[in-house]
């Protein structure tokens, strides 16, 4: 019998010298693919849905498929809507990370499909609902005082303490209810902080959408960014008064707050309102530098260059900084030099793993700024040195338009030298 199998096996190989190896290879490949899919499902895909009840998770899988795999906004939105409806029926917290994530995914899907006005409409509604809920919750004395489990922390009054002086057994059911109430109260407090941070993030995203080529509404973008900054600074003040950490926890980190300020600063700078952008950049730099413990980062480099540009561009044009009329032109020029030089020095200390095109771009721009200052001080050789260094970086990161601008500066300066 065994011999018969061996003969048959050899016969198969002889009769199918090409097809059989291909068939075996196909089986092995299919097995590997399915094993990989199972692994990804278990380690990456599955955990994304484990916080959702099964009915909600099932609709979310469909929605994500029609968002990230095979874009179909109609089918995706239907699935997202069903997921939100099921989440409500299953009593999921309407402002939990999970439910808010679903609502934000709706806007993302519409944006990916090029339906930016619809994406804005959804995001505006989500932001308005979230902000209304946050304001309602923060009107309580607990949030004004910065307490998380305030209801339970107060306890009974001293006058009624005598009533409980005797020994008393605690009903386990009451104790369990108490613990659940306490957990719910603490969870609610945490969600208020998280949701407020999300409102800031949604405002920044709305500004991005309003400034996009689809909409081009700078006024709406500015309003959204100003709202984000006002919320951030208002919460910073509340936390300071309540003796809470300014950043971190469920609330935004100092870097995230600084980023919100920087976004508004960039918007003002793009409109030539440098007197408005400068204080925002300075505050953002302080926050981010403090949060990163003085460790050099690309965000710091970019902000330092932006600060130098806000001071230097008006000064080179002979205009006194509007934010501080008492500063002389010479003082402004020197401040510009220090900030630009600081940006270059800090860029050199950024860890290689943290380097980015943004970092290189800011370093190049800072070198060009130093070149312009050298021209102002009638030092053409020094200016050319900085210009060439800046142009080399622009060429390396393929910032062609900026490289061409520097080439013109070099050409003009070399003409004047002759």
TrEMBL record:
Keywords: Membrane, Transmembrane, Transmembrane helix. InterPro entries: Mrg3-like (IPR040201), TPR-like_helical_dom_sf (IPR011990). The keyword Transmembrane helix applies. GO terms for cellular component: i-AAA complex. The chain crosses the membrane at residues 20-39. GO terms for molecular function: misfolded protein binding. Signal peptide: none annotated. It comes from Aspergillus niger (strain ATCC 1015 / CBS 113.46 / FGSC A1144 / LSHB Ac4 / NCTC 3858a / NRRL 328 / USDA 3528.7). This is TPR domain protein. One of its GO terms (biological process) is protein quality control for misfolded or incompletely synthesized proteins.
């Amino acid at each position: 019998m065994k011999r018969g199998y061996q003969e048959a096996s050899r016969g198969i190989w002889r009769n199918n010298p090409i097809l059989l190896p291909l068939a075996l290879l196909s089986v092995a490949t299919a097995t590997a693919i399915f094993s990989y899919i199972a692994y990804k499902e278990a380690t990456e895909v599955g955990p994304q849905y484990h916080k959702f009840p099964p009915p909600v998770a099932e609709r979310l899988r469909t929605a994500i498929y029609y968002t990230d795999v095979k874009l179909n906004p109609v089918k995706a939105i239907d699935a997202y809507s069903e997921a939100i409806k099921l989440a409500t029926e299953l009593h999921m917290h309407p402002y939990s990370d999970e439910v808010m994530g679903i609502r934000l995914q709706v806007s993302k899907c519409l944006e990916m499909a090029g339906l930016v006005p619809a994406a804005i409409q959804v995001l505006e509604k989500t932001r308005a609902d979230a902000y209304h809920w946050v304001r309602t919750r923060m009107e309580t004395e607990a949030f004004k005082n910065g307490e998380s489990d305030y209801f339970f922390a107060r306890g009974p009054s001293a006058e009624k303490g005598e009533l409980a002086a005797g020994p008393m057994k605690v009903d386990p059911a009451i104790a369990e209810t108490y613990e659940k109430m306490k957990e719910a109260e603490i969870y609610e407090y945490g969600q208020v902080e998280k949701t407020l941070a999300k409102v800031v993030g949604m405002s920044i995203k709305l500004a991005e959408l309003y400034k996009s080529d689809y909409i081009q509404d700078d006024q709406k973008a500015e309003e959204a960014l100003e709202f984000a900054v006002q919320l951030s600074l208002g919460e910073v003040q509340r936390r300071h008064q309540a003796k809470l950490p300014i950043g971190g926890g469920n609330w935004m980190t100092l870097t995230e707050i600084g980023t919100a300020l920087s976004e508004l600063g960039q918007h003002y700078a793009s409109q030539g309102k440098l007197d408005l952008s400068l204080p925002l950049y300075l505050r953002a730099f302080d926050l981010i530098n403090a949060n990163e413990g003085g460790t050099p980062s690309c965000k710091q480099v970019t902000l330092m260059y932006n600060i130098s540009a806000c001071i230097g561009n008006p000064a080179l044009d002979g205009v006194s900084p509007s934010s501080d009329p008492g500063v002389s032109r010479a003082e402004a020029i020197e401040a510009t030099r220090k900030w630009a030089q600081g940006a270059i020095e800090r860029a050199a200390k950024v860890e290689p793993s943290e380097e980015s095109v943004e970092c290189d771009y800011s370093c190049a721009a800072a070198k060009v700024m130093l070149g312009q200052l050298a021209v102002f001080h009638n030092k053409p050789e020094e200016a050319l040195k900085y210009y060439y260094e800046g142009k080399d970086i622009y060429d390396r990161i393929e910032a062609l338009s900026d490289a061409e601008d520097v080439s013109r500066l070099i050409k003009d300066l070399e003409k004047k030298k002759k």
